[in-house]
Every structure is written in structure tokens, then in C-alpha cells.
Amino acid sequence: MSALIERKLLHIHIQGFVQGTGFRPFVFRLACNHAQYGWVANCSAGVEIAIEGEPERQQHFIDDLKNQLPPYAQIKSLQIDEGPPAHFQSFQIKTSTVNDTSSLFVLPDIAPCPSCLSEIENPNSRYYRYPFTSCCFCGPRYSIMASQPYDRQRTSLAHFPLCPQCQTEYRAPNNRRFHAQTIACPSCGPQLALLSSDGQRLADASQALEATIKQLQAGKIVAIKAVGGFQLLVDASNSAAIHRLRERKKRPKKPLALLTQDLGSAEQLGFIDASERQALCSPSTPIVLLRRRGDAPVADLVAPDNSLLGVMLPASPLHHLLCRAFNAPLVATSGNRQNETICIDDQQALDKLGDIADCFLTHNRPILRPLDDSIVRLLGDKITVLRRARGYTPLPITISRPLPDALATGSYFKNTVAIARDRHIIVSQHHGDLNAAETQQQFADSIADLRQFYRFEPTLICHDLHPDYSSSQFARRQTQAKLPLQHHHAHILACMAEHDLAPPVLGFAWDGAGLGSDHGIWGGEVLTVTHQGFHRYAHLRRFPLMGGDQAAKEPKRLALGLLHAMLGDDAFLRTDLAPLSAFTESQLSLLKQILNKRINCPQTSSMGRLFDAVASLLDLCQENEFEGQAAMRLEQAASNSTVTTSYPFELSAHKPIEIDWRPMMRQIIRELGEQNPEDIAARFHNTLADIAVAIAQTAGQIKLVLSGGCFQNALLIDGTIKKLKKAGFQTYTHEKIPPNDGGLAVGQAYATAWLRPA
């Protein structure tokens, strides 16, 4: 070692994903390898390092720091300042410092790594069958963090002091658990307990796991305390058990997700391509929507009349142990009552789920914030997030433009909220629809949590244009300046944000509904997004929503409204058509008056409702038993066809361009009874892709963005992208942020890059 006089002291300030990744142990080992003295510490903003040693070796240290990062660690910014020698005699990991700023780079919860899985399966390991095994590279993160920086005393493990063996591992530089904040073992860590539905203790620790397996094998419904909240589990091959679960949860037809032990068992359930395989096996372990195998070893009741299965792999050691012991797929659905939030603590679960679950597998490690399972799907050639929660939240969206400190309150349906700071947007976990007091409370709690966790105080509040959304009402109650954003404008901005796009773009926002700037009900929109806002470039020809919101639940109403818009009262003579035969004569008589007098028949340009109407005409769905059922059946029918032809349509000469669906609908009606529904459904999808190309061609060479809930349809987005590409257009679609209303908060926040309150 050179003399002290030749030493140089460098202070290194790092921001990025450097907490909860094993970064400090990595720095410690790096410093020892390069003969550097000093310290490393977490701070509220990231990590701080002081190294003192030979300048040449310091440069090697910095090179390795950048190029040999641990798994999941990412450096977003690195600042180096030189200081006077401090004559350090060793290198150490110092106690974290807390200051007024907070890191925007917090890791989500991470599925167990291969090393931890190996230990819980090894009878000679002290972690054998221990369901809370973790290390520097895996385990709970965001779900257990109370505040920053990331240290055990600021997590829900604070009340579990380490035993001597864990202390030894925690202090050993070459150990995988060196300074692992979630370290725990059977001697000192959290423990399982199996409770009856009325809260009586049935079994503890490993006996609780064994008793749970017996309950599942007996066809019982088991509520388990998972990573981000309770889940309801049942044997996926037991039709009677699934029927009971559906009956008790009041969920008659909506598909249920499956939990299975490994990739091999997942391949027995669905067809898996390389992208889907990567998503299944990723540290996020989301539910992946797979094309169902005809011989999948699960009951039809898991996903009735559905060609897709939602499949996930174990997200925690507890899931892994359950799956290995049960050795067959399990239904795993959110532990909540209808229209309520996921339960996160034992008493809440017993109160809310006591009449659904037969028993409760719980533990004494608190969950600090609810995180549902995330959902992804292969759309086009990209895995796209449809529900963003566990495993993805709170990863930021990073852009190249500075943003003011803004809070975005999102939408009414599939709500998320977001905060903007510097060049980053942090989006909350999925909250669900804000139609119940519980979800509205979670929405408010989530905002309070974000403000506390990130030490964040907004100067600007962004919200949807709709005055009746509870998210908009919350925004208006705040004292800060307000920025209202039109719904479909925000959809397009959300996709722009994740691709860091600047205006101008031409955005296709096709969804169910959103309030337009003319106070109409929009949903089949093409907008030109500019630095000043947006212009409505094109939209679907309007048709009546007979009964308002009720029409979204009854596709037959939409089809009848569509027919009346084309044929007038002659529509009621077409009793040969499926939508009319779905009504009684007295109902049709009343509906005729309603349409002619325009009683509660608002006009809409909604693409989502057009999908519903076509599904009704093809007699695929007359009443939605869950959101999106009609559109799903239409996509499924179209997927079974190989036709490549399309229907005629017209675009108006005036601006905004009106997309006239009547030529298409006339042809569809002519083909009913002559062509099979699958071919008609396929031609409908093909026509929408043709419409997108035709509109894009009128706009010239401009960046194109596809957003909105309709673009969760794999057939639609795949066909549209291919046709646009063939026509020479560059098209951007969602990946990290949902194309549905779950992405609106991101779009609202991104708007602040250019827009300010009037």
C-alpha cells in the first residue's frame, strides 16, 4: 500500500436502484478488492460512498462500480467530488443517514432467487421449508417499507431482532446475506399460523403448512397472507370447490387466475412463447395471460368460455412451498369482497373474508401497503402490463424533460395515482374502480402514503375532465393549482411518457368512454397532440347509449341503438336479429319510445361500445356478466378465423373526420346467418385496422400512438401494427404502463411537461 500522502479522497453520490439490491455489500467488497478505505451508507436520496486510496486504483473501483452491478441494481446518476484526506484505516458500511430528500428509485417486491429456493428445499439447510427466506437479491421490498432509506428498522421486520446465526451471516462480507435487511430464519423471523374462519388457531409453523395442504386437497377455500395482501386459493381441478368460491365471492363468470409451481407445469396449461416465458419467470412474477391448451388439467369453471388462462409462478417462498407440496395448479384470486380492496391484515381478512374462506394461512410479518397481483399479456410482439401492482410498483417512468412537482389523480375506473418530480413519474399500485367507499379510502391512503414515502408536496394537481369522478372531486378539494386533462388526451400522453415522446403525435385512443371537451361521451378518438394540448382529428360516428351506463352492461341495448340509428323504427321489424330476440315484446315497445323521445339516450363515439354491439349482433353476448366480456368473446371468435378481408367504411371529407361505421354494419347484417360468426368477427377486426391506416394516411408522416382499453385486444393491436408498418408508419404502443385507465395518471402527470393551468 502506498503512503498516506499519496492517497486521494473521493465522495461519490449515487442515485438509482441502489437500495435493497445488495449494493452496499457490493461496494464493500469492491473497496476491499481495490485497497480503498472509507465507508458506504444509504441515504434518503440513494447511496453515498467515501473512498480513500491510490488514484489509479480508485479509477478501477469506479469502472467496476459501473460495470459489475448486482442483479436489479441500476445507477441513474453518479456524482464525484474530491475532498481532503481523512486518513481512514478501514472500509465499513455506516449507519444510514436520513435527510429531507427521498430516492425516487425504490425496488418492488422480488420473487425468490434460485439460491434461496435451493435452501428451502435442502433438508441440511437451516432455511429448509422456511417460508420467509430471502437474501440481498430477493424478497419483499416495497410491501414492507415504512419509509426511506431502506433499513430493517424502517420495515415491518423491525420487531424481529436477529438471532446469533443471522447476525453472523449479516456481518460476513462474502455471505449472500451480508447486510440483507430482510434476513430471517425459523429461530428469529416471522412464523405461520393456520386459523379457522372465526379466528381460532388450528396449527403453527410447519404444521400450519401441512394442514393447509390437507385443506386444499379436501376442496376447501384457503385465504393466504401473500406478498401484498390476502389471496383466496382452491384446487383448480375441483369444480365443486371453484363453484363455491364463485358463489361466495359473487363472481359467477369472470376468469380466475392460476398459480402453478414452475415453468414445466405452466406449459401444461397454456402455449408459451419466449416473451411470455420471460415474463412468467421474471422477478415480478405477474399473472401472464396465455393461450389455453385444450387439455389443460383444470376445471372449465376456472375461465368459462375463454380461450385464455391467467397463470403465475410462485411470488414468494411460501407460494413455492405450497405449490410443491400440492403438486397441481391452484386457483389464486384476490382476497377481497366484490368492489372492495384486497385485505392486508388478519383482522380485516377475518371480518371481510370469513364467509368466503374456510381457513386462513397467515403470519406475523405486517404488510404495509396493499399490492394486487400484476397482469400482463403479449400484445403485438411485446409483453404489455394490463394491471400494474406487485412486482412493478413503484418503478418510475423516466423521461428527458423536467416536470414540476405534480400529483395526478387518475381515472374513476382501474384507478392509479402518480407523482411527478424532476424527470420521473412514480405511479401507484392498482386501486380498482372508485365506486365504493373502501376503494375511495385506499385511493386517499395511497396519495398520503406517496407524499410521506417520497417526502413529496405537489404544487400542481392533475385530474380527469369529468366532474363527477371521485378522483376529480378529490383534486378540486385541494388548495394547489389544478390542471384538468381530457380523458383520451391523457391516454395518448401515457403511451408517449413511457417512450419519452414529444409532440406532435397522432394518437388513436379507443376505449369504453371518457368525457369529451364538448361534454359528449367519447371513446373512438384520433387526436393530434401538440405542445399546446390536442385537436380532435377524427372520431367514430355517434350512436345512442340506450339507458346510459346500463348500456355498457347490456350489449343488446347497444346493438338495438345502433340499428335504430341506421334504420329508424324499421329496426324493430328485424326480430330475426339476436339483439331483438333477447328482449320481450313489451320491452321492445318501451325501448322504441325511449329511442324516439331520446330519454336517457346520450350519443357516444365509443369504440368499446361498438365492439359490444357487434358481439350482440353475432349473439356472442347479450348481457355482460363482467366488464369486457362481450369484447373478449368477439376477439376469441375472430381468433378462430383465418379470413383476411374487411368491410367497407367511409371517412368524411370535413374535419374532424367522422368514421362512418354504417357501410360495415349493413354488410355485417347481410352476412348474419350466411357467414359464420368467427369470420364476421375477424372481418370486423380487420376493418378497424384498415380504418387506422386510412386515417394515418390523411395525416401524413407523423409518429403514431395506440392507447385505450380496446388495444388490450391482441388481435386488434397485432393487425393494426402490421398494417401501419406495411404502410410505412412508426407506431408506439404500451409496455410498462397499462393501455387501459390504469395508465391515465401517468398521462396526466406527463402533460405537465408542456401544459400549465389556464
From TrEMBL:
Domain YrdC-like, residue spans: 206-391
Active site (catalytic residues): 24, 42
Pfam families in the cross-refs: Acylphosphatase (PF00708), HypF_C (PF17788), HypF_C_2 (PF22521), Sua5_yciO_yrdC (PF01300), zf-HYPF (PF07503)
Catalytic activity: C-terminal L-cysteinyl-[HypE protein] + carbamoyl phosphate + ATP + H2O = C-terminal S-carboxamide-L-cysteinyl-[HypE protein] + AMP + phosphate + diphosphate + H(+); an acyl phosphate + H2O = a carboxylate + phosphate + H(+)
Domain Acylphosphatase-like: 9-95
Record's keyword annotation contains Oxidoreductase: no
First-tier enzyme category under EC: ligase
GO molecular function: acylphosphatase activity; carboxyl- or carbamoyltransferase activity; double-stranded RNA binding; ligase activity; zinc ion binding
Highest taxon in the source lineage: Bacteria
Keywords from the named record: Hydrolase, Ligase, Metal-binding, Zinc, Zinc-finger
Gene3D superfamilies per UniProt: 3.30.110.120, 3.30.420.360, 3.30.420.40, 3.90.870.50
Biological or metabolic pathway of the protein: Protein modification; [NiFe] hydrogenase maturation
One Gene Ontology biological process: protein maturation
TM segment ranges: none
Its EC number(s): 6.2.-.-
Known function: Involved in the maturation of [NiFe] hydrogenases. Along with HypE, it catalyzes the synthesis of the CN ligands of the active site iron of [NiFe]-hydrogenases. HypF functions as a carbamoyl transferase using carbamoylphosphate as a substrate and transferring the carboxamido moiety in an ATP-dependent reaction to the thiolate of the C-terminal cysteine of HypE yielding a protein-S-carboxamide.
UniProt family annotation: Belongs to the carbamoyltransferase HypF family.
Cross-referenced NCBIfam families: hypF
Protein name per Swiss-Prot or TrEMBL: Carbamoyltransferase HypF
Gene name as annotated: hypF
